[in-house]
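Researcher: Can you fold this with zinc ion in place?
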Amino acid sequence: MVSDRAPIALGEWHPPGSSRSVPSRLVESGGQIAAQDETRANLAAADFGQLDIAARVGSIPRRVEFPDGSLFETTDNDAIDRLLTERGNVVHGFIHQLERFRPRLILVVAATIALGWAVYRFAVPALVEVAVMVTPPVVPQIMSASALKALDSGILDQTQLTAERQGRIREGFRSIANASSRGEAGYTLNFRKGGVVGPNAFALPDGTLIVTDELVDLAGDDTEMIVGVLAHEIGHVELKHSLRQVYRAAGVAGLIMMIGGDIGSGAEDVLVQGAGLVSLSYSRGAESAADRHSVELMLKAGRDPAAIARFFDLLEDKLDDHGDTSILSTHPGTPERRKAILDYAAELSAKAQ
Ligand SMILES: [Zn+2]
């Protein structure tokens, strides 16, 4: 078929599944759209509605696919756009747009997921550090007071330890608190009957330490071991582990509000979560850091730096409880961890001599 009308666009035609290209012109011919060769013979032809016309992406050559699988390719994007507009096949064009949009949609979704991951991986830790830096001392105090209150009303009971026993532990506690960077005034030691939490010790972000009767009983006559555990808890406070945990739980929005100084509902939520402090377990890294802190503090106070390692031995020997609130779940003890403590204690002791 021969057409005398001006071509819609000039380009190349590729037979189905072939990279061979034939110089071609896209024309309207007999009510159809056709790709013609230089002799104006149809290479392919179809109704406009049967064509698959690629969406415009920058200046990338535009492809018009015929039902037989052959392609007409042109750099004249404007011409193809004009064809689409002229045909005024809005609905058809729109559906095509949607279909063509899918790869881009997938890209957008993938980018969103990647961004979310990046925020979680990098922005949250960064925001946590900023929040920790700008936290006024009153914030951990409020958190800790509310946490202790919640613990006392729900879980913990008054201690049944004798005054004499408490006194011995307190004496050791004072010596390590003194050796710490906050000093003795930075810490308060509380004895409580643990009940469901069993043998445990925890530190609230303001330096409030709690040790349960059950832990003291487990340690028996080895007061040094208890002091080692308290030195470990002091490590968690000095390294601001529990404050970080709460902030991590607060999420990005909460953190931004905190940093922005907006003591509104968001910040309040964060503070209320302080009550959940004791159920938050620390990362392995935080645990080893607190272990090292215990070794350093005990040595500095002239006490047994390896006492905390003995405690983990004891726990594994005597405790079968692997429940969520046991000290083993919040302070997982492993042979590697004990070895790391003993190695570090030996290393520091050797240096000190
Ligand atoms: Zn710990």
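Model: Folded with zinc ion in place. The chain is about 55% helix and 15% strand.
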